[in-house]
Amino acid sequence: MANKEFEYRGPVVNGFLMLFIQLLIMADIVWLIIDASTIAVITAVVLGILWIIMTCGYVMLEPNESFVLIFFGNYSGTFRRTGYHWINPFMTKRKISLRIRNLDVEPIKVNDKVGNPILIGLVLVWRIKDTYKAVFDLDSQSRGNNMHNLAFQTFVSIQSDAALREVAGKYAYDDENDNEHLLTLRSGGEEINEQLEHKLNERLAMAGMEVVEARINYLAYAPEIAAVMLRRQQASAIITAREKIVEGAVTMVKLALDRLEKEEVVKLDNDRKAAMIGNLLVVLCADDAAQPVVNTSAN
After folding, report:
1. Sign of CA dihedral 132, 136, 137, 143
2. Which of 22, 41, 111, 202 is deepest in the core (most CB within 10 A)?
3. Per residue in 216-269, pLDDT tens?
4. How many Cβ atoms sit within 10 Å of the Cβ of residue 152?
């Protein structure tokens, strides 16, 4: 038998029809007990045992749910038909939800490409795709449905942690050299998320799971270097602001000189132009507004 998922092809009876048949059998059991003959009593006992066994065959499925059916240790297929049905009562039925599930991975500390410790977390949307792998390739240490669900969540959580560390280690947190073409965790956006989703799908496919969506939802420097990096960012912002101020001041000085020469307001030699340029640059580039000098000395 191939070790892969396939649809259950065995006999399936409508649950309400089988319930009606069981009611008829119950009526026969009651009539046989009333008859009280030896043969009638034996027949009633046999029908009673059959009735109890038949009761174990009912299954009910809602949309995006399935049953993995096992017949004395052999995989018999996956049953996905919604509604109320009756299946061979000797089948072991393990209910598996195919619905979408969320996982919020708490921020973990990792080292980025350049070795800076960072905190990074993700939110993951996943679901069961292959019920055979999910049930038989993943060891839940138990046969219960609740333990299976717990095993799924634990497996996804561990593999998400590993994939997140792998992706985070390939990129720097931020670009320290102002290279616009360098892909970083902070600026990568959709591209980083796509790579994370790809890595997660590779890891979860072994257990029959698929990732619908994966997104980094938390990204920050670790506390031990956060203050230093904040000062670096502030210094970078100050330098950028100063560059803009100087650029604007030079433009305004050039405009003033050109206007004075064009309108012939005053003729300035090179020394006076240099002095004027220096004064204007001091005023325009200063942090504080220029203050008039008041001479309070007596004449």
Report:
1. positive
2. 22
3. 888 888 877 666 666 666 666 677 777 787 888 788 878 877 777 777 666 777
4. 24
Distance CA 103, CA 161 (A): 11
Amino acid at site 174: D
User: Tokens for 119?
Assistant: 């905190």
Distance CA 124, CA 216 (A): 9
| Torsion sign over Cα 16, 22, 26, 32 | positive
Tell me the CA distances in angstroms from 112 to 105, 144, 169, 218, 252, one per residue in order: 18, 41, 5, 14, 44
DSSP string, 184-232: -HHHHTHHHHHHHHHHHHHHHGGGTEEEEEEEEEEEEE-HHHHHHHHHH
Kind of pairing between the strands at 117-128 and 74-79: unpaired
Buried b (16+ CB within 10 A) or exposed e, 45-80: eeeeeebeebeebbbebeeebbbbbbeeeebbbbbb
pTM over 0.70: no
User: What residue type is assigned to position 287 of the chain?
Assistant: D
> CA-to-CA distance for 75 and 8, rounded, in angstroms?
9
Residues 6+ apart with CB under 8 A from 73: none
Contact criterion met (CB below 8 Å) for 119 and 222: yes
Map tokens 């591209």 to a residue: 191
- In whole angstroms, what is the distance from residue 163 CA to residue 201 CA? 10
> CA of 240: how far to CAs of 129, 236, 286, 289, in Å?
51, 6, 15, 20
